[in-house]
Design goal:
This protein is mostly beta strands and 211 residues long. It contains five helices and twelve strands.
């Protein structure tokens, strides 16, 4: 699962990384969480744009859906329409996962981020409902860095794959090759304080390494 992440990258850097003509002024979110309005890149009218969408889809009587398994999203009723026509990118500095450790009553949180400067491009799907636009993040099997912490990770798209992922004309069967774990040299991780467990804590200290 990918339910918490950080996005504090300045707008001008996002514009360059994602090929955007303009970016609205964004407040930094160190502890982005479900139900919040968060920046998403999608294509509308043939142009890429960045909008604030609600993190989490509501599908029928199901609980809030924040993730979709990349292995089955193309076929499940909750996601298949969006998978075919409404794919998006979720910019992130990094994401949080939790691991049970001996002697700890609560699981230890870790911040997982890129080894190189710049935002990560998480693969997402967006949907329109009566409550407005919302999105989910696609997940896949973990690479070795993440496997030490969790059994799933978000799909992280390399720059060369962004155009194909956003293009609604890309055939569904061509997308499967993009939905794989990131190479192990892409990410690094460090333990962080339990502050991240409370979404009201949204300062840079939630991403700071414990040691």
């Amino acid at each position: 699962m990918c339910g918490r992440y950080s996005i504090t990258t300045p707008g001008e850097v996002l514009a360059e990384a994602f090929g955007l003509d303009e970016v609205p002024q964004l407040a930094p979110r160190h502890n982005a969480a479900p139900t919040q309005a968060l920046p998403v890149v999608r294509v509308e009218g043939g142009r890429r744009r960045l909008d604030l969408l609600r993190f989490g889809l509501v599908h029928g009587a199901s609980p809030l859906l924040i993730n979709a398994r990349s292995e089955t999203a193309a076929e499940l009723p909750a996601f298949r329409g969006a998978f075919r026509r409404r794919r998006c990118l979720v910019p992130a500095d990094g994401f949080f996962e939790w691991r049970a450790l001996p002697g700890m009553k609560k699981r230890q949180p870790y911040f997982i981020c890129g080894r190189q400067p710049g935002p990560l491009a998480l693969a997402g799907l967006w949907e329109e409902a009566t409550a407005g636009l919302s999105f989910v993040i696609l997940t896949t099997a973990p690479n070795p860095t993440v496997a030490r912490i969790h059994d799933r990770m978000p799909v992280i798209l390399p720059p060369a794959a962004l155009a194909a992922w956003l293009d609604p004309a890309t055939p569904v069967d061509h997308l499967a090759a993009l939905l794989r774990p990131a190479a192990d040299d892409v990410l690094t991780s460090h333990p962080v304080a339990l502050l991240v467990n409370d979404v009201r804590n949204d300062g840079p200290e939630v991403c700071r390494a414990l040691f």
